[in-house]
Design brief:
This protein has a five-stranded antiparallel β-sheet with strand order 2-9-4-7-11, covered by helices on one side. It is built from nine helices and eleven strands. The protein is globular. It is of the alpha+beta class and 334 residues long. The longest helix has 21 residues, at 165-185. The protein folds into two domains: 9-185, Regulatory protein AraC (Jelly Rolls, Sandwich), CATH 2.60.120.280; 201-292, Homeodomain-like (Arc Repressor Mutant, subunit A), CATH 1.10.10.
Length: 334
């Protein structure tokens, strides 16, 4: 099927000064080894952050391999498909947004993305920027340390919706767009056709040690001893390569394993905490809710009801949240 070309009559000029990102909703997908998403078209802009693993996108007929730390930016009305790597399938954090508020969100279709039921009149316009703003389809940003925390903060703000969260979300989006732009301008920015940089041996050794021992008591000193680096030097090297500290990576790894246990096993919360390397179920629940946005028990209940792996939930289940707008700024369609 030929790639759908955006309707240029719907494009409009937008000054960089006028960019005020409006985030419609966010979601997180953990792909299985056989995950494939057939060709689809979106109504608004989509940023996908490859949180872990690897896979490939086909965007307007061009194939892009993607890896941990990459960002994919897909404009409205563009045909694309997605496929996870069989051995190390990716985890994607997805942000549906527009560069400025354009309205019509209440009546915009949510999941009718496929060509056979496409509503062309609902496709949002793509801006033409008055200044030179470089936002490639795929960006290699593993080497940019602050990208990962920016997505973590954005998701946390969208989940908890504390006072002023909309401003915080806009600030995160502006920072992400700025880093994509500057990365595209840098002389040493990696091409989307090239694989990511090879990790230093000490970082690879540290990752391997944590992945094998996440359920045990692990300290920075113990990790550093395996790599033959001083803890301070290892932490600096690891953060430069991975975008987070070794202990932050260990915590993310434990939470990721806990999600798997919650999704795929009958272990109770205390048993999940122990298997994932947490000293107590209370501490586990505290960290899990802080990083994921839900308690472990609530997360398991939502996953079991939705049948989806990860925090990507059908909108019909939003009614079960304390607020019916957990993932979006707009009202839930009836």
């Amino acid at each position: 099927m030929p790639a759908h070309a955006p309707d240029h009559n719907k494009r409009f000029h937008l000054s960089i000064d006028a960019i005020s990102p409006h985030v419609r909703f966010v979601s997180e997908y953990k792909a299985g080894p056989d995950f494939r998403f057939r060709e689809r078209i979106l109504y608004d802009h989509l940023i996908e952050y490859i949180y872990d693993g690897k896979g490939q996108y086909v965007i307007q007929g061009k194939r892009f391999p993607v890896y941990r730390g990459d960002i994919v930016l897909i404009p409205p009305g563009v045909m694309h498909s997605i496929e996870a790597d069989h051995e190390t399938p990716f985890v994607r954090q997805c942000v549906h947004f527009d560069f400025s508020y354009v309205g019509g969100y209440d009546s915009m279709p949510w999941w009718e993305w496929f060509p056979n039921n496409l509503r062309e009149d609902k496709i949002h316009p793509t801006p033409i920027f008055s200044e030179d703003l470089r936002l490639p389809l795929v960006s290699r940003l593993l080497h940019v340390p602050k990208i990962r925390p920016l997505f973590t903060r954005l998701f946390r703000e969208m989940y908890h919706k504390k006072t002023g969260y909309k401003l915080a979300v806009k600030a995160c989006m502006l920072d992400i767009l700025l880093r994509i732009h500057r990365n595209a301008l840098s002389d040493d920015a990696a091409s989307a056709d090239e694989p990511p940089l090879i990790l230093p041996k000490a970082v690879s050794d540290a990752k391997r040690f944590m992945e094998r021992n996440f359920s045990q008591k692990v300290t920075l000193s113990a990790i550093a001893e395996v790599t033959h680096y001083h803890p301070v030097h290892l932490e600096r090297l690891f953060k430069r390569a991975m975008g987070c500290s070794p202990i932050e990576y260990l915590m993310e790894l434990r939470i990721s394993k806990a999600k798997e246990f919650l999704e795929d096993s009958d272990l109770n919360i205390s048993e999940v905490a122990a298997e994932a390397g947490f000293g107590s179920s209370q501490y586990f629940s505290l960290v899990f809710k802080k990083l994921v946005g839900f308690s472990p028990r609530h997360y398991r209940r939502l996953i079991q009801k939705s049948g989806v792996s990860g925090i990507c939930l059908p909108l019909t289940h939003l009614e079960e949240y304390p607020t019916q707008k957990m993932f979006s700024h707009t009202s839930v369609p009836r």
